[in-house]
What does this fold into?
Amino acid sequence: MTTGIIHGHSTLQEAGDGGHLRLAVAQALTPDGPVAEPRFFRGIAREPHLVAAALRALGALAGRRYTSARGTIHHADPIISAQGDRLRIESFSLCTGVYARLDVFASGFNQGHIGFGTTNVDIGPDTQAALAQVRPGAPLAISVGADALDITAATPQGVAQLSERQVRLPPLWLKALGNTSEIAGFLQPAFDAPPAAVRRFVASLPSSSGRRARGYLSYRRGALIFGARQAPGAVEVVHHPRLEILRPFVAALGGDTARAPQAGAPAADTAAARPGAQVGAQALPVGSLRVYGPEAGTRRGAAAAGVAAVELALPHGRLTVMLSPGAERGFSGEGSLLTRLAQAGGATDAGDVARVHEHLAFDARLEVPALAAATGLSEARVRAALLALQTSGKVGWDMADSCFFHRELPYDEGNVAATNPRLKAAEQLLRAGAVHPATRGGHQTAVREFAVRGDHETYRVLIPDPTGDAPTDTAGETDDPVADEGLWCNCQWFRTHGLGRGTCKHILAATLFAADEESNAEAP
It folds into this structure.
């Protein structure tokens, strides 16, 4: 209860009693300064049946588990953010192996106001049942704030006013949010598929309880194809039935796919939005699907191996879905941020983090150069601060707009190591004097070698040397191949996982050592 979040269960109250969804909300750092417990969103959905289907799908995802392993999370809530020009709703599956985010732009609401704020809310079974009755054209009014999220829905049974109470946002979601943000930055568009192909593909998805196949998704001969063999331009997807969250969205769209997303000319009041905000960059025709995969042949791509993402174009918005590299692997355990955290020295300067944080105002688009100019920090220090803010879930990455965005969650980014046990173990190795530079022979001057004393033996570690020559690919040429561009260790973890789940604690310890050396050399 350190975050002050209310524990409870969802209830559906009778219409007319003033019922509403009770929320806890982070203080809004708006462009006009901090606002305590603001009512930050009001609007009537232009596509009520689609918004209702989206709320149901994202609420259901938060209670869905795709792994046979028993987890510690038994229930979680979607996260809702208002960012001046859009409403964002995010959710994970219970196993954190599936991430979904709905962006609804201002043009998707009538007679409303989009302010600035973040909260998380339980969308329970009673509310989902009522939302299932919403039909096209039926009024659906939504209001989000510190004291309530009100939903008034017209159904065949009459007008329903829905009431929910929220449960605690799991700390595991914070790790998943940070890793998802980092991995999303390693993905790039692979191909687009038109609405007809998307409808056929989604209709053909097998049950998610079936065999967990690893295969490749491609667009060939007018069809989205999932096959066992890699075709040119295909994206690796593990257990593709997890894309079942697309079903209610595609069903709600029906055959209405003859128009492009209406990303401009917002209908809601967005006077508080910063000038120059862009919405829906590189928009797709409604019902189309953009598929993202890892960058080929780079360390960034290696860190995202097996991860796939799709973007479904909607009227006035889009749905983004990311799948982890395995049905048994959640984004909370991927460790994608670890190497960069170590390169930043483990705990980024708290003053830098605070300064950057002060300039965040629920921006839908965060630009590093603009933040550097506003804070007086270098772009490198701004990026390091944003990295720390990612670990607390306060900064995410939007693949469609290729930029960071801000959400405010009630967690402290100050103690980064506390939420990253591997980084904490690496810091302990460093403090214990277990890291020693070694002399590396041969021509590989872009790589530094270390001896790191572990629990059972001393391990040999290689990391890139930023002061050396450009890395060369020595894979297959030596007994210690630097296949991952300079990162290597002979411990069992690295032999098993490589960089697929982040680096081992020995590589992290060596990276921390090198970061400390560089920092001391730069000190006056």
